[in-house]
Write a structure and sequence with these properties.
Strands 5-4-3-7-6 form a five-stranded mixed sheet. It has a two-stranded parallel ribbon with strand order 1-2. The protein is α/β, with parallel strands linked by helices. The longest helix has 14 residues, at about 15-30. Helices cover about 25% and strands about 30% of the residues. The protein contains three helices and seven strands; from the N terminus they run βααββββαββ. The model has no long low-confidence stretch (mean pLDDT about 90). The relative contact order is 0.22.
Length: about 140
Amino acid sequence: MTTIPTPADRPPLHLIDTEADSLAGLALGAEHRIPAVAAMLLAEIERAEIHSATDLPAGVVTLRSTVEFVDEGTGASRIVQLVFPPDADIAAGKISILTPIGAGLIGLSEGQSILWPDREGHQRRLRIVKVSRANPGG
């Protein structure tokens, strides 16, 4: 069973209002299929500071963002794009928001790190190196 990180382990988050609403609906719809990931995503949405798209601080991970992050435990660096489940394609570097990593990255800012469980439930410290946001509607 995956454990949800405690609030003390989690940095501040920022979400776009319309994305927060979409993500909450997505998580609620996935509760029966993937309850642990849905619970993690809902908890992150609940604690996030909500902004309009125009007021979101720079360097924040949003849907369709390209994110470079480092697993501080292994030193491995990855570049992924965070997408809705139908658009996920791991071979193309597109990861679903409904994965443990996707739920952990959303709303983080460049330079932040978070202690977060992977698919096997092992805690990983992920650090955001760079965020490139997609064009609106892109």
